[in-house]
Hints:
40% of the residues lie in helices and 21% in strands. The chain has 162 residues and is an alpha/beta fold.
Amino acid sequence: MAIDRKKALIAGSFDPITSGHEDIIRRAAEMFDEVYVSVVVNNSKTPLFTDEERVSLCERVFADDPRIKIVSDDRLLSEVAETYGCGTIVKGLRNTEDFVYEFEHAQIYRGMTPSLETVFIPSKAEFMHVSSTAVKAITKLGGDSSFYVPECIYEDVYKKLR
Length: 162
């Protein structure tokens, strides 16, 4: 399949998807005609939500935007991008550690698929500290994590963690 610079791929474990993830994905949808959100398996993490649950949560968050398509795939990111014809990988950055990690990976993707570009979108200040790990910790300890999770899935996240 030919690549298309008007299509982008954003991948993550989204366990669960956070308000920070949502913000980056919606901002990417303003820059590209289509954004594929790939819910992936990260072997270094033990997910709280199943693959199917994570896909379902993402579908609910973006049900209002037909430009955003949720997929699930366990292959290399460059292969997933090629499957959907995406010419760009989008990565959200919260801090310099994210940049170093994602920059190294961008070089690997480019080495495997020279036509594949990576675009970095910095987090808004209010989401720089938000992570799925933090959401799980706050909620498990009885704190209010509603700001950090999209409203339409908050109850599901709360029930799973409490």
